[in-house]
Design goal:
125 residues
């Protein structure tokens, strides 16, 4: 069941990336706040936490590395798709960097949230 939530979240991220640019509201104050990067960071932070929680039996650094690299490549693929396949969207390397920041924040939060990890979690292999 945990994988269902994680996969559903990844599908939601893909759908949000695929929305045509015309469907996304443009507000001047959002440009000032740079909320787009915050959204990218939050989406990928939650994605990491859900995937790491779904893979609970593996709480080790190798599992975290696989999840981190997979999510980073997923974010890159979505940005590439925005640039070349999705209507009225553009590729932005800073969005991808925000995705990576979200993944890193997800790692830190996951290791600090006591009800997600056990006392012997994240052991070095």
């Amino acid at each position: 069941m945990r994988y269902t939530f994680a996969i559903s979240w990844l599908v939601l991220i893909a759908i949000l990336h695929a929305l045509p640019g015309d469907n996304i509201s443009k507000f001047d104050f959002l440009d000032v706040l740079n909320i787009d990067k915050l959204v990218h960071t939050t989406l990928f932070m939650i994605a990491f936490i859900l995937l790491a929680y779904a893979d609970k039996r593996q709480y080790n650094l190798i599992s975290f590395h696989y999840i981190t690299v997979s999510l980073a490549m997923y974010g890159l693929a979505l940005e590439y798709s925005q640039g070349y396949f999705f209507e009225n969207r553009s590729m932005d390397v800073f969005d991808w960097l925000a995705d990576i920041c979200g993944i890193l924040i997800g790692i830190l939060l996951f290791r600090k949230i006591p009800f997600l990890t056990s006392t012997n979690s994240c052991k070095k292999v």
